[in-house]
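In full, the data:

***
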Amino acid sequence: MTTSTTKYFDDLQIGERFVTEARTVTLADVETWVTLLGAPGEMFTDYEYASQKSVFGRPVVPAFMVQAFADALLGQQQTLVESTVALLGSHMRALAPLFVGDTMHVEVEISGKKRSSKPDRGVVTLLYTMSNQDGQAIMSANSTVMMWRRPDLVLTEG
């Protein structure tokens, strides 16, 4: 079922932006992430260890966790969830650390779009900027997704 906020390939404009709600990343979040992945977690979960071994002096949130939260925050808006077919690729760049206890939000810009060889789909490039509670950019990412076109437009063109 399509929500009233769903935007399809045809609805999106290059330069259009979406800003998500904010989310505070807790120590429990990071502990769950590290446990789920089976990854060594002292740098991310142990304040004493991080104060001695980390260049940041305190626990940081793993970069891939930041990216995962960014996708989840965008998904909570429901704007692109039902119209996205698949992730085709993504490239992220860490700009600054996100610390345990920080609050992040995401701004997503439509930076490119083109029709697919399939008449019912298009390809969209999204530029993510993840920022902390102070407005400092902590990560950027370029993601390319395949999206459905508006069903009514596909039918009239077919």
Remarks:
- The mean pLDDT is 92.
- The helical segments are 27-37, 42-45, 47-53, 63-76, 151-157.
- The CA atoms of residues 45 and 121 lie 43 Å apart.
- The chain has two domains: 9-25+61-157, 26-60.
